[in-house]
Amino acid sequence: MDVYSAGVLVFRRGEAGIEVLIGHMGGPLFAKKDESAWSIPKGEYEIGVESAEVAAAREFTEELGLPVPDGRWIALGDVQYGSGSRRKTVTVWAVEGDLDPDAIVPGTFTMEWPPRSGRLGEFPEIDRVGWFAPAIAEPKLVKGQRPLLQRLAEHLAGTAPTP
């Protein structure tokens, strides 16, 4: 089963260098995890129903409660990850901007918790966001998304491969 997802990686430039905005995945499965428990704001879409760009903007707003900052969208391309019969292709753009993590109003999802209890709970899609230097963000991100940090760095350094 192939799943398609699209997202936006917001970055800013400061005295200490580049920082990226990533979100810690909400819900009980990630509550006590830090490494590989953060994600670029993104979400699933159906090919042929909406474009990846439209889905990326929609999902960013759904997950963070804020619109994508104004600015030029930089294509970072696709990454694929998953296991078994479930493979995910994620298409990501980077946009330069500055958002206040305290202004985030996360979207929510419903799931049965604890498993097989019959009780449904509502949880934030992202329970917190933060600005991190790429070297600090890398181990926090889901493994499959980590190459996107290198692609952003290459683009900003002017060494990104030409399509």
From TrEMBL:
One of the GO biological process terms: ATP biosynthetic process
InterPro entries: NUDIX_hydrolase-like_dom_sf, NUDIX_hydrolase_dom, Nudix_hydrolase_domain
PROSITE patterns: NUDIX (PS51462)
A Pfam family of this chain: NUDIX
Name of this protein: NUDIX domain-containing protein
Residue span(s) of domain Nudix hydrolase: 1-154
A molecular function (GO) term: bis(5'-nucleosyl)-tetraphosphatase (asymmetrical) activity
Stretches of the chain forming a coiled coil according to its record: none
SUPFAM superfamilies cross-referenced by the UniProt entry: Nudix
